[in-house]
Design a protein that fits this description.
4-stranded antiparallel beta sheet; alpha+beta; 50% helix
Length: 127
C-alpha cells in the first residue's frame, strides 16, 4: 500500500496549477481594465453634469468647478459671440493605455466626445 505521493504525481499537479494560472491571470487583468474603463466613463458623465449644473445655477462657465479628474479625456471651453461650448476630446494623462482605449471607444459610441454643452445667450441649447 502506498503511503505518499510520488514525485511524478506532484509534478503533474504543479503543471496543472500552472496551466490554470496562465489562463486565469489574463482574465483578471482584463476585468480590472473593464472596471477602470467603466469608472472613467462615469467620471466623464459626472464631469459634464457638474459643469452643466454649475452653469445653470450661477450663469458662469467654469470647467474647473468639479472634483472629478479625467485621465483619458481632455476638456476645453470656448466662447464665440456669446455662444459658450464645452468640448470633450480624446487624450489625457493615461491616453494609450488599454483601459483608456476601451473608455474612449465607449465614449465615442455613446456620443460623449465632442461638443457636450452649447449655451447661447444664457440658454442651454445642446447637452
Amino acid at each position: 500500500m502506498k503511503s505518499a505521493f510520488t514525485m511524478i504525481e506532484l509534478i503533474f499537479v504543479i503543471v496543472i496549477i500552472g496551466i490554470l494560472a496562465s489562463v486565469a491571470i489574463p482574465k483578471l487583468s482584463a476585468t480590472r481594465d473593464d472596471a477602470k474603463a467603466g469608472q472613467e466613463l462615469t467620471d466623464l458623465s459626472v464631469y459634464i453634469e457638474d459643469i452643466t449644473s454649475h452653469y445653470m445655477g450661477s450663469g458662469l462657465m467654469d470647467k474647473n468647478h468639479t472634483n472629478v479628474s479625467l485621465h483619458c479625456f481632455e476638456s476645453a471651453t470656448s466662447e464665440v459671440n456669446g455662444t459658450i461650448t464645452l468640448t470633450i476630446t480624446l487624450g489625457g494623462d493615461d491616453d494609450g493605455k488599454e483601459y483608456c482605449n476601451r473608455a474612449q471607444n465607449q465614449a465615442i459610441a455613446h456620443n460623449m466626445v465632442g461638443n457636450n454643452l452649447v449655451i447661447v445667450g444664457g440658454a442651454l441649447l445642446d447637452h
